[in-house]
UniProtKB/TrEMBL annotation, chain A:
Name of the protein in question: Intermembrane phospholipid transport system permease protein MlaE
Function: Part of the ABC transporter complex MlaFEDB, which is involved in a phospholipid transport pathway that maintains lipid asymmetry in the outer membrane by retrograde trafficking of phospholipids from the outer membrane to the inner membrane. Probably responsible for the translocation of the substrate across the membrane.
Annotated organism of origin: Crenothrix polyspora
InterPro entries: ABC_MlaE_roteobac, MlaE_Permease, Permease_MalE
Protein localization: Cell inner membrane
Keyword DNA-binding on entry: no
One GO cellular component term: ATP-binding cassette (ABC) transporter complex
Keywords noted in UniProt: Cell inner membrane, Cell membrane, Membrane, Transmembrane, Transmembrane helix, Transport
Similarity-based family: Belongs to the MlaE permease family.
Transmembrane segments: 20-38, 50-78, 147-178, 198-217, 238-257
Topology of this chain in the membrane: Multi-pass membrane protein
Domain of life: Bacteria
From TrEMBL, chain B:
CDD domains cross-referenced by the UniProt entry: ABC_Org_Solvent_Resistant
Lineage: Bacteria, Pseudomonadati, Pseudomonadota, Gammaproteobacteria, Methylococcales
Domain ABC transporter as annotated: residue spans: 12-248
One GO MF term attached to the UniProt entry: ATP binding
InterPro entries per record: AAA+_ATPase (IPR003593), ABC_transporter-like_ATP-bd (IPR003439), ABC_transporter-like_CS (IPR017871), P-loop_NTPase (IPR027417)
The organism of origin for this protein: Crenothrix polyspora
Entry protein name: Toluene tolerance efflux transporter (ABC superfamily, atp_bind)
Tagged with keyword rRNA-binding: no
Alphabetized UniProt keyword annotations: ATP-binding, Nucleotide-binding, Transport
Automatic annotation (TrEMBL), chain C:
Encoding gene (name): yrbD
InterPro entries registered for this protein in UniProt: ABC_MlaD, Mce/MlaD, MlaD_Phospholipid_Transporter
Pfam family, one: MlaD
TM region(s), chain numbering: 9-27
Keywords noted in UniProt: Membrane, Transmembrane, Transmembrane helix
Keyword Transmembrane helix in annotation: yes
Protein name, per record: Toluene transporter subunit: membrane component of ABC superfamily
GO function term, MF aspect, one: phospholipid binding
Organism: Crenothrix polyspora
Amino acid sequence: MTELFAQLGKSTRGSFSKLGRATFFLLQCLSGIGSVLLRPRLLLNQLHSVGVLSFLIISISGLFVGMVLGLQGFYILSEFGAEETLGVMVAASLVRELGPVVSALLFAGRAGSALTAEIGLMKATEQLSGMEMMAVDPIKRIISPRFLAGFISMPLLAALFSAIGIVGGQIIGSGLLGVDEGAYWSQMQTKLDFTDDIINGVIKSVVFGFITSWIALFEGYDAVPTSEGISRATTRTVVNSAFSILGLDFILTALMFGDD
Amino acid sequence: MANSDSHLNTLISVSNLSFSRGNKKIFDDISLDFERGKITAIMGPSGTGKTTLLKIIGGQLLPERGTVLVDGQNVHQLRRADLFTLRKRMGMLFQSGALLTDMNVFDNVAFPLREHTKLTESMIRTLVLMKLEAVGLRGACNLMANELSGGMARRVALARAIVLDPMMIMYDEPFTGQDPISMGVLVHLIKALNKTLGLTSIIVSHDVHETAAIADYIYIISEGKVVGQGTPDEIKQSDSEWVQQFMTGAADGPVHFHYPAKDYLDDLLSSGKRY
Amino acid sequence: MQHSSTQDTFVGLFVAAGIAALFFLALQVSNLSSFTDQDSYTLVARFENSGALKVKSPVSAAGVKIGQVSDISLDPKTYQSVVKMSIYSQYNHIPSDTTASVFTAGLLGEQYVSLEPGGSEDFLKDNEVLEITQSAIILEKAIGQFLFKSAEEKK
């Protein structure tokens, strides 16, 4: 029994000390952002590997999610004779929830895990240490540009996801199932509010981009520099990002859409 | 322990250093001096924290007690910016080379120049090609870091370490895992760089013969203590059994072949309890 | 450090596509365009009961959306609902004897203001009042009246 408590205490202390390290890491990372802006080349390279390389998976997923919403929405709405509001349903679910959340989950799986593995491997092969010995701060040179790139890419990717999804829903809805195309768009426009829906969705994706990039980079930086350590860190990135995204989504939704 | 007569000529001075990792004492109150323009070797069995010592000298790890003076500056009391300024004058060659894997050889060697100087691309090119020529790899400048053999990677890393013309260079196990030819090349390079550039060199190694061949002074460290020091000849003449075992590579001696264990016969006859 | 121009191009395309998607969401999907793009003028209608009408509910004539509700308030003296409507300025030929009614789109749909033009030659201008109005039909009231009537007839 005492052993159990000792174990519990040890692991609690461990997770607090990890949170402390993560916070310190975040502060260092944020303080390095200024120097990244002076060297846009570093940011550009990372926008490529974080953003551009996630583009394909995000667009394809967005298209299919939109088409599925179109199908499902049509079957449900047609029971109430409200097929005309299909556009509203597709767009609201994408812009408010699925766009930010699903694209953030995909982003954590695609870009987040890659970032963790990359940083972890750089640590294991002494590249970070080597940089420090060359009087180059690895946080400024390696971490901050990646963080900023993730932070910028996420809202763009989420917007692409939603936009492509809405078009996908329209292809199915009015192309295949015969919902009036004008009604699809005009109902959407009257029902979706710019600040309530679009801006809130963007805020969500900004928050998710921040948290996912933070987790991915920290897990890599904090990884045990062995192949097993890196593979564990990569798994933790995906799992922790998913939990954080879904948990934060609940909180943000309650804050944003709660008092209507 | 330190040679007090050569204080003026000392570039790096480690005094009363203690460091432990977990419960294990890595260094227990050791003092070492490194003379300007000389090759000093630190030898000892694997796992005695030789790499840790280099990281402490480079300011990447904080010692528990003791001071490290590099060119008169106390490494562990410098502000971050001053430490970075000092590090520009310290080269370090990591065991793995620590080349940046997303760049080719040329960009790797150019990296410190691009980070720390505002030289034009053509000047950088000249400097990089000069350093690569010095290590004999000018022809490899377009290869990616992962296309190099271990020995080549170390030579590229060496070119990178000297590209800012440092005052000193620390070699972490430069000979480990090299074939005889690459080993010969590295031995030759370290000696030549030391002579031509006047670099103060610290070699951490357990390759006795190669190191003894080029070192001016040798410290032997074991279990956190300096157990022997002197010129290579003095070390070879040492009457310490331990030093003799290490230098000749005998399997058994003061350092036992066997990891501490209970009695062999008892162990074999005991009822296969797992532990 | 590699200066690859294809990489730059892809990053450029990516950022441009992302920003285009944001604009698409703002202009094509949400109501941003409806209150920034179009000039409008205000008409006022007084209803005995405006039902579930809300700000931004559509205002239509002959099924075409011509504006939206911009404000709803209670007149403290007459206890009437004062509904202000922004009408897009291209629809500036609304006769002064036009009827404003609150209708429901479909059985479960939202409520909207329907304008039925009269025959007058005078057209309404900014901030003028629609005199003829027809209140929202409150379903409970209607059912209640219907039951009451049928009960009386049985007697």
